[in-house]
Every structure is written in structure tokens, then in C-alpha cells.
Amino acid sequence: MKPETQPNMKSKIQINRRQAMRFAALLTSACLLAARPAVAATDTWNGGAAPDGNWLTPGNWNGVAPATNDLLIFTGGTQTTTTNNYPAGTPFNNISFSSGASAFNLKGNTVLLSSPGDAGSGNIKNGNINSASANSETINLPVVLASGYHAIGSSSGTLKLNGTVTHSNGAVAAMSGNINVTGGLSINGAANGILGGWAVYNNNWATLDGSSNVVAYTGYTDVVGAGPIADNAASNVRITASATVVNLASTVTHINSLYIKPGTAAQTLNLPTGSTLVLGQNGGIYNDSATALGGTYNALTVGAL
After folding, report:
1. Would the pLDDT of 152 be above 50?
2. What pTM does this model have?
3. What is the pLDDT of residues 100-149, one digit of tens each?
4. 20 pLDDT more than 70
């Protein structure tokens, strides 16, 4: 995900502060890093203190309860109903369900999913929620995504995020697999058909089907060649061709979001002097042009020629 905007000083692209922060996609959070231990431990649930299912009970984690920012792994079939009784907002790095995990139900206080770390060579680590289990895994507790890029997905069974999911400024979520968010997320209100400029699914904006499963958005307004992009505040615009310049249809053009299709060549979005492109309150710009190009993103230039 690579949002790129280079506004001309005499033209304007109007994005509110919250939206701009979403797409900053910061990979660190100074406050969290200050509290993070040098090396986060990996803690594996064994449910050894059954019928006590509390997270703070050491016996449920092979004798040592997790510390702040540890990586949590749920596996096995003992005491599968668990309660997070850490103070609300305690940060943990990962929540994972192993391939051998029975159907778990995580309840209790809010979890803050920590900001991802730098794994080197342009890669990131941690800050994720994932399931390798063939069973349905349910997270009924509220989850807050700290700033940064978070991978959320299931490779086999369904991952149910049924507690409220919220995102901090600068948080971006890339989702894949079978994910259900009944009670957790909504596309109602000002989303205009997508979850928002912070969430993608399989290299598209993320949306929900009628059963609250996360799916790829398909209702794009496609722009081929030089456009122009029409004034429609509810539209999620997709640039599909390899034109070098895309124009606006009016002096003030409203759209919800802009998506650059994989394989699309470098683009210039032409904002003549005095014109304005207004993005939706929960929209954004998603440059996915690297997918078919070996990881090298094409440039998106926003401004007057």
C-alpha cells in the first residue's frame, strides 16, 4: 500500500486531518515503543489452570503470564473460552491461532494491537491477527489497532471479529481469508460502500457482504484513459488504464476514494490551478500499482501540470 500525493502549491487536494493520518501508515508509535521490552516473548496458551480461563493466570500460559507487547498464541483444546482480565488497552503484539487450535472464544477487556516493527529489507513484523486453524476462531473482545500496517486473516477456518474494531490514526489493515465482523465493523454512515480508507482486502478496498463477511469491493467507477473523473461524492474511483494524465471534470470534484489498479503505469492526476479534489471523510487514496511489477510502485503525482 503506497499512498502518494504531491499537491501543487496553486491547486488543492482536500483531505481532513484524520484521513491524512490514516494514510501516513506509520510503522512505529513512540509511546508504545518506549514501553516495549527489548525482545517481546511468545506466550502459548495451554489452559492449564482450567476452569480458570483468565489471561493473567500464569498456569494458562505454561507458568508465565504474558507481559506487555508479547505475542499470544492460542492452541490446543483446553479451556477454549478465555477472558482478557488485563487492564483495558494493554498492548500485545500478535494474536494467533495455531493449526491445532480448537474453536476458541476470546472475551474480556479491550486489546490494543501493537504497532508493527521493522523486520528489515522493507518488511514488517508483528501487529497482526491470524488464524491457521480449520475451526472458527472468535474474538468477542474489543480490538484497537495502533498506528501502522496490520495483517488480519485466516488461512482455513473463519476468523470472527465480533467485538468492536477501532483504528488509531495511521492504522492500516490488510485483510485476507474468511473474516466475519458481525458486531465489529459496519459500512453504514459516511463510508460510501467501503469500510474506509484504512482497510483493504485482497488488494482492493474492503467492504462487507450481507452476512458481514469481509470481501473485496467491486462497485468502482472506472476511469479509462485521460478520464475525466466526474464529480460524485459517493464514487470510489478506479484508474484502470495506463494513461499518463487523468483530468478532473469540474473545478471542484468530489469523490469518496481513488484506487490505482495493479499494473497501471505511473499517473499524473491533473489539478489545474484553482481546482480542488475533495475526498470523502472515510475515503482515501490506495496505490496498488506494484502487484504485477515485482514490488516496484509506480508514481502517482497529484497536482497541476
Report:
1. yes
2. 0.82
3. 999 999 999 999 999 877 666 556 678 899 999 999 999 999 999 999 99
4. no
pLDDT recorded at residue 297: 65
pLDDT score of 77: 97
DSSP the chain: --------TTSEEE--HHHHHHTT--S--HHHHHHS-SS--EEEE--TTTT--BTT-GGGGTT-PPPTT-EEEE-SSSS-EEEE-SPTTEEESEEEE-TT----EEEES-EEEPPPEEEETTEEE---EEE--SS-EEE-S-EEEPSEEEEEEESSS-EEE-S-EEE-TTEEEEEESSEE-TTT----STTTTSS-TTEEETTEEEEE-TTSBEEE----EEE-TT-PBP--TT-EEEE-S--SEEEBSSSEEE-SEEEE-TTPPPEEEE--TT-EEE--TT-EEEE-TTTTTTTPPPPEEEE--
Side chain identity at residue 277, one-letter code: L
User: To which residue does cell 521490552 refer?
Assistant: 37
Cα distance between residue 268 and residue 199, in whole Å:
24
